[in-house]
Write the structure tokens for this entry.
Amino acid sequence: MIRIAPALLLALVAPALAQSAASPAISVDTLKDVTRELSSDAYEGRAPTGPAEARTVSYIVRRMQAAGLRPGNHGAWTQAVPMVEITARDVQPFTLTGGRIPVTMAYGAEMVAATYRVTPQISLSNSPVVFVGYGITAPEKGWDDYAGIDVRGKTVVILVNDPDWRTMTREGPFEGRAMTWYGRWPYKFENAARHGAAAAIIVHDTEPAAYPWAVVQSSWTGAQHELDQPGGHLDQSSVIGWMQLAKARELFASAGQDFDRLSAAAAQRGFRAVPLGVQLSTGFGNTIRRSVSQNVIGVLPGTTTPDDYVLYTAHWDHLGHCQPVPGPHGVDGICNGALDNASGVAALIALAEAHSRAGPAQRSLLFMAVTAEESGLLGSRYYAEHPLYPLGRTVGGVNMDGLNVIGRARDFVVTGAGKSEIEDLALPFIRAQGRRVSPEPNPERGGYYRSDHFSFAKAGVPMLDGGSGEDLVAGGAAAGHAAAEDYVAHRYHKPQDEYDPRWDWAGAVEDLNVYYRLGRRLADTPGLWPNWYPAAEFRAVRDRSRTAAR
């Protein structure tokens, strides 16, 4: 249950409820048109810096302009995001020697490999392999999987998620079932690099990863993107990648170890890394292409306090061309990303239309379609590191990543609940629709760390990320859960994520009403600055930025 700040309720619940009757007209036609257009094959899956980026950006700009927004980058519609694309070629199998029998892992089917390093060739020869459990260094929790081991120049094998992911409650050193930042793959690769590992390989397991191997395969084969920064990321590991669970078991058996026993030991405080006595060899070439992608930004300037900003975000990118699958019209190799996240961009445009029709608010409203979310939140990260408007004057906002297209829900789920006061501000608008707030059904998936609000959170700006729960008006929780699981298993990050004219947009409209009213409340209440709860990891940076702004 979300904690409610009494001061916020006293000041805001009554006016919020009074305003709830004035429902904005969210255009379902806009939601359909934008989603259908951006997810058509003409946009080739909207890969950042890909052949269809210019078409994508141009379409979003036209829709923002038609919605009544002004260019958001001081007269321009876009913010340039310098990118480097690294495409591995001729990837050699993982060859592991020194055990009872050699173990080989084939690229794509059994392992994937890539690099952040901007270099034409990667070669790894006989790198000693060390099992480092969950690969976590968390001094505040008394946890260090790298204690007592030097992994410089070595290959580390890492378990996905957190040590307590099997706990069905939220209790535990790493918040129990809920994934923390320590459980996310970007953290694990970053931490391995900090410890000097030459290679970092995560063991894929569908339940704690929250997606099947096919998602890893489609996401980690082909072009990989990073921000183009000085130094070429040469401080990162030479090889990063994943291996199938079955191959990990085979590897550990060859090393004379029991994978399940060591995995259980790794979930306990005090675990110490285990050298496996085997060596890894692999290599590949890299095709390197530097380019510039674009964040698209529109603004509805405020009237009385235009230098305060309320933010709506959605990422426009998807995977582009990906692993082909048989389809009704032949083999389909385009990951169109209809739900993820053409629908979020459609929501951005529909909200811009609604706010524009209502007229300017007291504070300025920013509408931002960011690039390269699928590549590690790069577009939002770049904005957070190079803001066009001071983050200390950015009040907060809403991030949208996939709409509800399966019908109205009786509940609303806040991703990563319990972190900021912006959740309290949204609560009256949710309840005004007769809905309740439910816990995340799958907190182990780490949703809070997987979309663009996280980039802003790290910079101190509280953003709401949430939407319809699984308790559908038609069919109840069972139907909602089945639909969610079906999407993850059969469409997420696959060519099957395509626009469907049979979608039911009623639930999306209800969610957008919450987003609209929350944004309007933030924008029409000068002096209101939602903060993080005192124990939240982002409170200190918010306090610093607000102090500097004042």
Observations:
- Confidence is low (pLDDT under 50) at residues 1-21.
- Residues 35 and 343 are 5 Å apart (CA to CA).
- The chain has 15 helices and 22 strands.
- Residues 338-358 form the longest helix (21 residues).
